[in-house]
């Protein structure tokens, strides 16, 4: 018999099976596209949703002696999903844990980490999953790019002690690369996906995508991989494309070369919101089910940080491009998820995801219901977790957010959050506010 020392405490562990909780009196936006349902009861069994029914309907037998929480008509939405985070560039454990804590207390129950130091990320994912630290579930990607990309200083910051391009989570791909081995190495990091970043041609993008899918990995790609254009990435079968502004290179001013030698963007080509090349691209994305991770509000952050009038004007043009392209994609029926690719300042009370959702409504003209669906069901689809999250439905994880005010009336009512439930564990917003004082 082996006597193991105790592991680290897990005060934020998922609720164990058999712990039944009844939440009554919810106004439920379930994420499926249905209209909000007042007078709804949600029954959880440990980390799983057991029953969703009307307040006047009989409860299941398991709920006979369960704890009951009266929501008094408060608005309930599925747990939010940020589909573009970087939690370890460079690794900083205290900062990452602070971001994760703010995310989960802000209603975010899952994130995609889009390539970082996976030694760090894999342990954060483990710690958040079992409840050593408060935070959302983390799905993450291992990065592949052409050799010329690995002079980027960010790659060295996530490969400390090793050589960028020569390790499983940051691989340089050449014509001599054994792709089955390369993908297997990436998969061995427990990554859910390959992220294709830069300096790969169309044939290589297609070959990586095919091998990743053969090994049951997703492919999350930059919208332009340089020299591979957006149309090449979509044709290859990538599951999602990141950054709406990179879609402008479907109609470039010059032939595409390497990532660090991007041609200038002709903003005027997209001002009318009816660019024909983008229209054809969006039709193909819709046909294939390719998800767009627009990261639309990033340029507004760049504008605030600009130190010259010229850089501020450039950021404004980029934000306008992001809004125009994202709106066109939505009208074309492309599935949009909601990633941020940045975070608000450490002292800010809410995560950057709230700003991204507001941008979609206020600058892109997308309805609040569609934006919430993007941040829940479509986020789960992009992460490859639609079977267990993204909607409030029996059999899925008990992941949902409770708000005092309806976000359908004003998307900024997300800031009225009072409670997050993640895998059945309750995160009371008041606890977070007390910790900030």
Summarize, please:
The chain has 13 helices and 18 strands.
Structural class: alpha/beta
- Shape descriptor reads globular
The tally of beta strands, per DSSP, is: 18
Based on CA atoms alone, the radius of gyration comes out at 22 Å
CATH topology of the largest domain: TIM Barrel
**Oligomeric assembly:** single chain
Query: What's the CATH first level of the largest domain?
Result: Alpha Beta
Strand content: 15-25%
List keywords for this structure.
single chain; 437 residues; alpha/beta; Urease, subunit C, domain 1; 18 strands; globular
Structural features, described:
The chain has two domains: 20-77 and 394-430, Urease, subunit C, domain 1, CATH 2.30.40.10; 80-383, TIM Barrel (Alpha-Beta Barrel), CATH 3.20.20.140. Helix content is 31%, strand content 21%. It has helices spanning 93-105, 118-130, 153-157, 179-187, 202-214, 230-236, 276-288, 298-305, 309-331, 352-362, 368-374, 377-383, 429-436, and strands spanning 20-28, 37-45, 48-54, 67-70, 75-78, 80-85, 108-113, 137-145, 166-167, 170-172, 193-196, 218-222, 240-242, 291-293, 336-337, 400-403, 417-422, 425-428. Strands 6, 7, 8, 9, 10, 11, 12, 13, 14 and 15 form a ten-stranded mixed sheet that branches. Helix 5 links the parallel strand 11 and strand 12. Helix 5 runs parallel beside helix 6 (230-236) and helix 6 runs parallel beside helix 7 (276-288).
